[in-house]
Amino acid sequence: MSQPPGKKGPLVMIHAFKPPLEKDKDMVTRSWDKLKSAILKIFNEEAGELSFEELYRTGYNMVLHKHGDRLYQHVEDLLKERSQELCAKVETETDVTFLDGLKREWQDHKRSLRMVRDILMYMDRTFVKQNTKKPVYDMGVHLFCQHCVRAPGVKSRLITLLLSKIEEERNGNKVDRDLVKNSTQMLMEMGRDVFHDDFEVLFLKSSEEFYRIESENFINANGCPEYLQKVERRLQEEQDRVGACLSVDYNAGEGGIKQVVEHELIGRHMQTLIEKEGSGLVWLLENRKVDDLRRMFDLFSRIHQPPSPGQLSGLDLIENRMAEHVMVKGREIVGSGTDSDGQEAKVDHLKYVTDLLDLKDQYDSLIKDAFKSEKSFINKLHKTFECFINQNPRSPEYISLAMDNHLRGGKSQRTGAGQSEEQVEGMLEKALQMFRFLSEKDVFERYYKQHLAKRLLSDRSQSSDTEQKVIQMLKSECGYQFTAKLEGMFKDINTSKTVQEQYRNHLAQAGSADASTEGSVDLVAKVLTTGYWPTQQTVQCNMPQEIDRVCNVFKRFYLAQHNGRQLTWQVNMGNAEVTAKYDKPYRINMPTYQMVVLLLFADPSSSALKFTDIEEATKIPAPELKRVMQSLACAQYRLLTKDPKSKDVSPTDKFTYNSSFTHKMIKFKVSSIATSKETSEEVQASRNKINEDRNPQIDAAVVRVMKTRRVMEHNLLIAEVTKQLQNRFVPEPLVIKRRLEGLIDREFLQRQKGNMKVYEYLA
């Protein structure tokens, strides 16, 4: 078409109208007859002579001419008829050939459906999608399922034979696994719901019944280890069976065969297995059956949810029963601190702590090797130790005493032999594990300070480096404030060495007035800072004149260099080395009190003295003097004799110089009879002092909390103060309440008007 002159714009093409194609009224019938004949040949395996291109064009034309619905319906009817024919054929099979025959017909049917699908591909792409119908292949599978597999004469036989084959294999018989797998795969290909409704429900039910009967019979006839081994084998067999006999798409987990088998073999019997007499969990723990314990842990860990409401999961059962057993063992070790008569129980502190460490090592090892270092098991063990260790109020003292023994280089409780520095450090690290379980760490600190003081003052520490390492471990555990005084004690010892050297130089100076004062007495003084050391108010005993004279010389020297300071002699903390002549000269190291008493007998006129005479002459307190006399007259080195002879000392006893004393060693040490553990009276006195020391700490914690919060309810304040102090001790709520009343009286706090349970901070 030409464009008029002077006009610009796009050209428009106009085509002649095409008349509609004439419809062939017989085309649909001819086309379907052609397709039906071809499909039947495919079913009969005669497809070799067919032209698939021509057949595709035939199906294409039917859909193109709006006959897709008729074509789809014809195909559906034909496939339904074919499925019914195959059903009749399968029903004639015997039980021996049934599964194989069904498998064969299913495979042939799928192959035929794929060829039919290729012919009718255009219908699948257009008509089926537009009308949301099943594609040809899926429709064929569905019809085969409904009219063959689910037919009354096929379905029941199929499921019965499959379950029978599986049970035969569970009983140890050999079956054709591939045949079973092909059958279950067929059901899965027909749909997950078909597999579940027709097979899985009955399969799980029969499996549940099978394993319930088997497990009950086996657990009644065998011990726990044998049963666990049986279960382990069964679970592995069932896992292999699922892979070999069931569909590759089958999920054996949640709600599947795995859960059913685990519930029947493990879940229903967990409590019975744990409590089984002579082979249960306690027996396994006592006999360190690591392999069996690991097997129990692995199997029970499969039971994440309790078998029934109100019960515990598998690992919780093991964890709780182990904790109960450890609690019993721990209470046997720690006791309660008193015997059946209410008197203080006699305890070997070293054995006490060693037994605790052995128990801890034993269960640490079991948790690592058998329970895979499960965090919840470790936490449960720690809580259990914390519980029973704190049931004995003297645990802090015993732990400190055990550490004291190792730091002094004492013998091993297990071997009776000496220990290397590495062994000592190892034992101390383990002892500190027990320290972590203490709720009253301030009590431990008090005893440790006392024992450290004795080691430092008597030079009995095996290694200064080891002592410092313990201090560092305590600092990392509890902070600087916990060890500040302990570190101050070491500083005093180092400073005292310098002071002693200066004192020696002072005495050595030519013309020194004090140089001639010492005579036969060599004084080594350690100057201690009052706030660091566990000093006590002690009665000053009457020192021998020559000793008193030397002490005054040192006092003048020290105060001349440190104006304004005060010196108080702590006689009860000192020791002396005395040269005494019996059958031969001996060099005897002894506490200061023992030296004071022994020097009384150096006077020929005092060869025999009564207890009361010694008390009057020395002014040593009677309880302390009794222990002194026991160490001199009733212990290993009997430098004095006592009349009457007995281990106890009474005010009427008479003591004489033991001129017949002899010993193979020239140099030896006389120790105080004072027990390493405190007496009940001393314990009570220590407890009272500790409670007094806690009061300002509680006050400080309350003030810190209230200064931050300003206003706080009573119970919340109690909880917060307890939380702040729990690293040192756990205060009683009643004690905190009393301290709150005291702070109110001192106008740090006040109760809120209108609500007496709320406190307000006063700036």
Summarize the structure.
This is Cullin family profile domain-containing protein. By secondary structure, this protein is mostly helical. It contains 29 helices and nine strands.
CATH fold type of one domain: 5 helical Cullin repeat like
Q: What's the total helix number?
A: 29
**Shape by Cα distribution:** elongated
- Termini, distance in Å? 104 Å
Helix content: 55-70%
| CATH superfamily (homologous) name of one domain | Cullin Repeats
CATH top level label of one domain: Mainly Alpha
Give the radius of gyration: 48 Å
The chain-level structural class is mainly alpha
User: Mean pLDDT, as a whole number?
Assistant: 86
Low-pLDDT runs: none
With strands numbered from the N-terminus, the spatial order across the biggest sheet is 1-2-6
Which CATH architecture of one domain is right? Up-down Bundle
Number of strand elements: 9
**How much beta, percentage-wise?**
5-15%
Instruction: Please outline the major beta sheet.
Output: 3 strands, mixed
Protein name: Cullin family profile domain-containing protein
Keywords: Isopeptide bond, Ubl conjugation
GO molecular function: ubiquitin protein ligase binding
Family: Belongs to the cullin family.
